[in-house]
Specification:
mainly alpha, elongated, about 150 residues, about 70% helix, Arc Repressor Mutant, subunit A
Length: about 150
């Protein structure tokens, strides 16, 4: 995208086209508008118009993000939550979207991830292998209690 100054009307059209290709949150759109040197009042007005016309909705973005990261990237709820907080979305909106993920689904995904990773992990002892698996699963955003339960470590 161009980093030159745009008029509010040009920015609106570009952002509408961007939002029609995929879900975007208001934080990402604001950051993009800042590169176009739009004033705060212009940014608010453009965002309001995008929301009124149905191009942008943070709640819808949150649900789509949670669904995609859970199903396709197989992230745990902790990592998904962290990434959404970085986009300055409200906690209650994040929790509402995360509630759509069943704990059974999360456990099954964790079980598959660990089983898959175990095949490629090298270690001299079972302890060393488990440490690597714990770090891997924690990096994917799963809770330590769930990881330990899956590895049968208490």
């Amino acid at each position: 995208m161009n980093t030159r100054k745009l008029t509010p009307e040009q920015a609106l059209h570009r952002l509408a086209a961007l939002c029609s290709r995929g879900e975007r949150c208001s934080y990402d759109l604001r950051r993009k508008m800042q590169t176009w040197e739009l004033s705060d009042s212009e940014q608010k007005q453009i965002l309001r118009r995008l929301q009124q016309e149905g191009f942008q909705d943070d709640r819808r973005y949150c649900r789509a993000y949670v669904r995609d990261k859970s199903q396709y990237s197989r992230w745990g709820t902790m990592k998904i939550s962290y990434e959404l907080r970085k986009k300055q979305l409200p906690d209650e909106m994040i929790q509402e979207a995360l509630s759509a993920i069943s704990t059974t689904t999360q456990r099954d995904q964790l079980k598959q991830l660990i089983a898959q990773k175990r095949k490629s992990v090298k270690g001299q002892t079972e302890y060393e292998i488990n440490q690597k698996l714990i770090r891997f699963a924690a990096g994917r955003g799963y809770a330590l209690d769930d990881i330990l339960r899956e590895l049968h470590i208490n």
